[in-house]
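@here heads up, posting the sequence + SMILES for the adenosine-5'-triphosphate run so it's all in one place. Ping me if the SMILES looks off, I pulled it from an old spreadsheet.
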Amino acid sequence: MIELQDVYQVYNEGGTHALNGISLKIDDGEFVFVVGPSGSGKSTIIKLLSAELRPTQGRVHVNGFEIENIPHKDIPYLRRTIGVVYQDFRLIDNKTVYENVAFVMRAVGAPQRIIKKRVPYVLELVGLKNKSRRFPHQLSGGEQQRVAIARALVNNPDVIIADEPTGNLDPARSVELMTLLEKINGLGTTVLVVTHERELVNQLEKRVVAIERGVVISDRTGGYYLDEEK
Ligand SMILES: Nc1ncnc2c1ncn2[C@@H]1O[C@H](COP(=O)(O)OP(=O)(O)OP(=O)(O)O)[C@@H](O)[C@H]1O
Ligand SMILES: [Mg+2]
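bot reply: prediction finished. Complex structure tokens:
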């Protein structure tokens, strides 16, 4: 479960008030879109959930971990429970697709025997099985994005968090990717997607949390992009 309670985030650099008393609860197994204008605080929320940041004020609870006072040594355990697809992918340039994915399993100490089974399985799931020996620069933007998703999935996290995962995709690929995330959600994983894809959000009719100036301005189910009615 994910819960933010009255969370404030002030960045020291520039003194930006990115979050201004935001509260939000996401139960296990939910599929949630987070929408909102550029600079409204969406990526900041994700950085809090993965403990890249600590809240300036307020409580952030993720899968039983209290981010506001998580000990440094517990952060890797927290991160095993979440898979994050970053806005900029963060792939490793000099590792192949296979190695980019295997790497995060090695990082949590998975045995080689399990890695050899699991990596091809997730590459198959994202449709990249035949490109496992390529390097990131030999892939299209959409393929790179799917490597990032494979990597987020591979340790079988409780929650998948994707920051604008369709940013570089054409409309058909965007639909495919959302379908993939729905499939993953159907297997029991909580899915949180930050997106600007108005059409997709309206089409999928999931819970939509709209953020503006660091607070939730609307939270409803059924595919509303901001306050727009279908
Ligand atoms: N490291 C940082 N240092 C200082 N200010 C920051 C930092 N990161 C973000 N901000 C500021 O915090 C606010 C929220 O940024 P955030 O990245 O959360 O927005 P966002 O909703 O993800 O926007 P976008 O849709 O453009 O990705 C913005 O005003 C941004 O300039
Ligand atoms: Mg962002």
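MO: The beta strands are 2-10, 17-26, 31-35, 57-62, 65-66, 82-85, 159-163, 190-194, 207-212, 215-221.
MO: One more: The longest strand covers residues 17-26.
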